[in-house]
Amino acid sequence: xxxxxxxxxxxxxxxxxxxxxxxxxxxxxxxxxxxxxxxxxxxxxxxxxxxxxxxxxxxxxxxxxxxxxxxxxxxxxxxxxxxxxxxxxxxxxxxxxxxxxxxxxxxxxxxxxxxxxxxxxxxxxxxxxxxxxxxxxxxxxxxxxxxxxxxxxxxxxxxxxxxxxxxxxxxxxxxxxxxxxxxxxxxxxxxxxxxxxxxxxxxxxxxxxxxxxxxxxxxxxxxxxxxxxxxxxxxxxxxxxxxxxxxxxxxxxxxxxxxxxxxxxxxxxxxxxxxxxxxxxxxxxxxxxxxxxxxxxxxxxxxxxxxxxxxxxxxxxxxxxxxxxxxxxxxxxxxxxxxxxxxxxxxxxxxxxxxxxx
Amino acid sequence: xxxxxxxxxxxxxxxxxxxxxxxxxxxxxxxxxxxxxxxxxxxxxxxxxxxxxxxxxxxxxxxxxxxxxxxxxxxxxxxxxxxxxxxxxxxxxxxxxxxxxxxxxxxxxxxxxxxxxxxxxxxxxxxxxxxxxxxxxxxxxxxxxxxxxxxxxxxxxxxxxxxxxxxxxxxxxxxxxxxxxxxxxxxxxxxxxxxxxxxxxxxxxxxxxxxxxxxxxxxxxxxxxxxxxxxxxxxxxxxxxxxxxxxx
Lengths: 358, 248
What we know:
The complex is a heterodimer of chains A (358) and B (248). Chain A has 358 residues and is α/β, with parallel strands linked by helices. Chain A has two domains: 2-185 and 204-233, Thiamin diphosphate (ThDP)-binding fold, Pyr/PP domains (Rossmann fold, 3-Layer(aba) Sandwich), CATH 3.40.50; 237-353, Rossmann fold. Helices cover 41% and strands 19% of the residues of chain A. A seven-stranded mixed sheet of chain A has the order 3-2-4-5-7-6-13, sandwiched between helices. In chain A, strand 14 (297-302), helix 11 and strand 15 (322-326) form a beta-alpha-beta unit. In chain A, helix 1 packs across helix 2. The two termini of chain A are 41 Å apart. A seven-stranded mixed sheet of chain B has the order 2-1-3-4-6-5-7, with helices on both faces. The model of chain B has no long low-confidence stretch (mean pLDDT 97). In chain B, helix 1 (25-38) packs across helix 7 and helix 3 packs across helix 4 (103-111). Chain B starts with 24 loop residues before the first helix and ends with a strand. The interface between A and B is large, with 40 and 34 residues.
């Protein structure tokens, strides 16, 4: 049965159903409903909600709880995610599973509270110090906020890694009908967790390696893990790409708007299609290349000034002209704006892109 | 026939300490290990090492441990304790870690009455990085970043953590002790035990500030360092129990 829920609350409920019983957070718009929902929900579910003194403290509480073997989550928005980067680097280094949510707002600095996708670089390029990667999931509707939250906890445990859910203020604040998953059984026992060393040798959780050779070995092992994640976990969605001469690439909320623009272009006889990365890291390069097989031009649309477009270019290896259209600062690109960009490319590029309207 | 009058606590691994001669970290590691043994908590304990000279305390304490980012140990310990409320969860932190970069985490863990114990090593400087000005460096004290001595006009005053935290309702047990004499070391052991007991009774936050020597960075011989501690640190940081909640 579907229920009507606000994105932030649906995500929070999904976390509980995925077995998350611990949440450490700090208020910041536009994601505060996640905290508020879990403050009501977790105590009754035998869990703990704790409002930390800062985002820095919250992410370190996550470190401790994850190290103690729990499914645990924190959430924030841009400025708060910046503060969490130290902890995320330690969590990646110590290989602790957890879920971090960024409901993006406009930046830089304090920026504003309107939706944005300007944290793409921060999310996909590590964010904190050191050579690490973390899976980044980009939902584009409230149902996906639910589904990808469940997936995030599974990926975190499977690979012992922090997983980032990169949403935006539109997704967090909008209401849609969603199907909630059943409540999961408890997460598998983690033999590496620090729970007290009864009947076994002690466990130590650390990202510190004094000896350079040891640290290199640790890094090589991490890289091997990242290669495995890259090979197995890339996800994306193709929409009308089979014959698409103009391929639009967009993620999250922007992809929904782009989809409407693609439909409008189709109605005008332009063979447009949409490719939507669902994982931003690993970037679904292979899926994108498949979606771009018939394309003469690519248009990347983002709520920023050109971040994912770099990955699109890298993935396509400069075989196609990759154009960019973006709005920032909390301004949302309209269907008409994207449509006009598609029309421009539909006319400029190879003849077969343009199909005469019936 | 001779009998052993002392042996290594079970909670100490036996790995040789890396600490400098005359540094009192080793004594405190042993005291913590002895108390954990005495209370029978080794298999129920999760320790949190911090950033500083004691960063690899987990090599010496034979129990489950996590290593925390600089200053964040009380937050990490909070996460552990909230998941495992019946375990003994403690941090082991230096003065730069606790009273400077981690001041917020310390104060808020105390204010929440978080049921963790903080072992706070105060040696009046940053030891691991080579003896820089710490929030606990005494007025006039020479460090590598206060080469003319701590000028309180420009660098401000040392922070007395015990006195500050004693104003809060969250702490159940707060004590300042020292390591400059055998009698003080015995008191330190008692304070650590009371702090752990306060936690296991669920009474609230507990913290033991331990005045320690740092002969290498102070530029003193070990015995001179003990004397310096006694003559200079004790007057500024008076030992004593600053908070003892009912039931401790």
